[in-house]
Amino acid sequence: MDQVDNSLIGKLNKIGVALSSEHNLSRLLEMIVKELRSFTNSDGGSLYIRVDDELSFEVAQNDTFARRTGNVPFKSFRLPIDHKSIAGHVASTGDILNIPDLDKLSEDEVPFRLTTMREFDKKMDYKTVSMLLVPMRNHKDEIIGVVQLINSLDEQNNPIPFEKNVEGLVISIASQAAVAICNSVLIQDIKNLFESIVTYSAEAIDARSPHTAGHSERVSALVIKQAEFINDQKDGPLADINYSEEEINELRIASLLHDIGKIGVKERVLDKANKLSDEKVEAIVNRFAFINRDIENSTNLKKLESPELSKEDIETLDTETRDKIAEIDADIELIIKLNIPKYYSDEEGEHLEQIAKKKYIDINGDEKPYIDSEELENLKVKKGNLTEKERNEIQGHVRHTLNILDKIPFTEELKSIPTIAAAHHEMLNGSGYPNGIKGEDISFQSRIVAIADIYDALTAKDRPYKPPLPLEITLKILREEADNNKLDQNLVNLFISEEIYSKV
Ligand SMILES: [Fe+2]
Ligand SMILES: [Fe+2]
To answer: How confident is the model at residue 462 (pLDDT cuts 50, 70, 90)?
Structure first.
């Protein structure tokens, strides 16, 4: 094999490697036209991709136009796959078309129309002389597009016909290009599929409770903004941290999925607004009304069955009954008050314990407590609205998050998603959950998610257990959490000083 052939093979190999390593479709299409033009020394080139029954015009390159105006006019359009256009004709037949001189062709001799080409030349003040059109066939021999090369140039830059012997090589490059396009489309399809699974999973988690609607999406937006601002830091403590496009994408997905473990938390617990549900409070109110009626009934019965009772006895009986009812009314009033998660006094706590000790006879004649142990446990909660068991269940969502995400075979670029997501409730001083890890053991990415998560939880308008906090108080809380070494001081400073919360 001579030297020329060797350099040709080298060039072909180089093109093949370049094509297979570019996965961005639009860059790949540009590269295909550029390589084929350089290979054939063409002034111009275009590329069409088959979309259903049409050809979509995707790339236009032309050195003459670029020299004249600095750019090449381009407007995407679609062509039917038929014989009305040259590219459509090539896509229909699958034949290579080498036109040495367009002027020497007449409409009646060829099975396609030349009008569009000629109109284009006139409009653009250009002269198309030679053309080489090649169908792009993928590994299944399907035509997935057409490459159109215009005006092969000699050394003096004059248009000459495309040499017959380059046809085979152009076909070969076009086939490699077709495979690269298919791979790129396939990769994009998989990415789109993955993206929609992530998006819908995040929406599904948030939709489990009306109170978390949009939470994951907002947290993700805040996280990305923080990462962008960190990247912009030229000096100061965050100047050395730089997130690549892939790392920001990893952070974005981790924050979209950070609460995916809530899927394992009961809705009753997620939705809890007060200590007891409205239905449970209603049941208690009805029960107490029954107890009241029962007391009144037994007084009336006593009066009926004991005609010997004196006026004084009856008055005493009535007073006792009224006192009992007043006591029960006070009991139910306390229960309704304690159901709202607010501070209550030790006396009120003692009063609640007393109520729980009281018994009544229910409709079946069974002895029952005024309030059962579960109702007592809920009403006794001192801080917030959750019992310890419920709090553990809610806090367990991060363990579920890790369990779920750990089972997903993330690619190398996304492999830290489970650990970033699962540490969003860990605090730098070790007071967080689920593992109580500290400082350096909490990744920077998780610290970023933690700030976004707290900010959104405090300011969200739809949380049942607390109304949204004003911005000023929210920022004060974030500062306090940083001062107490729970949140990262530098990140909180950046979040507040750059008003990142207002930039999403
Ligand atoms: Fe969470
Ligand atoms: Fe969250």
So the answer is: low
- Residue 1: pLDDT above 70? no
Percent of the chain with pLDDT over 90: 69
Work out how many domains the chain is built from and give that number.
3
Closest ligand to the CA of 215: 2
Tokens of 27: 């860059």
2: in domain:
no
Of the pLDDT bands very low, low, confident and very high (cuts 50, 70, 90), residue 463 is low
CA of 398 to the centre of ligand 2 (A): 9
Q: What pLDDT is attached to residue 8?
A: 75
Same domain? 422 vs 305: no
- Rounded to the nearest angstrom, the distance between the alpha carbon of 56 and the centre of ligand 2 is 43
Query: In this model, does residue 2 exceed pLDDT 50?
Result: no
Q: Which two tokens stand for residue 160?
A: 């000459």
Q: Are residues 77 and 150 in the same domain?
A: yes
User: What is the b/e burial string over 393-432, where b = at least 16 CB atoms within 10 angstroms of the residue's CB?
Assistant: bbbbbbebbbebbeeeebeeebebbbbbbbbbbbbbeeeb
Note the ligand closest to the C-alpha atom of 401: 1
Nearest ligand to the C-alpha of residue 456?
2
Instruction: Give this prediction's pTM.
Output: 0.74
Regarding whether 66 and 178 lie in a shared domain, the answer is yes
Q: What share of the chain in percent tops pLDDT 70? A: 98
202 falls within a domain:
no
23, 156: one domain: yes
Three-state SS letters, 10-45 = HHHHHHHHHHHHCCCHHHHHHHHHHHHHHHHCEEEE
In a domain, 395, yes or no: no
Average model confidence (pLDDT) for the chain? Answer: 91
Query: Which domain CATH number covers 168?
Result: 3.30.450.40
Q: Does any domain span residue 375? A: yes
Instruction: Residue 287: give the domain boundaries.
Output: 278-385
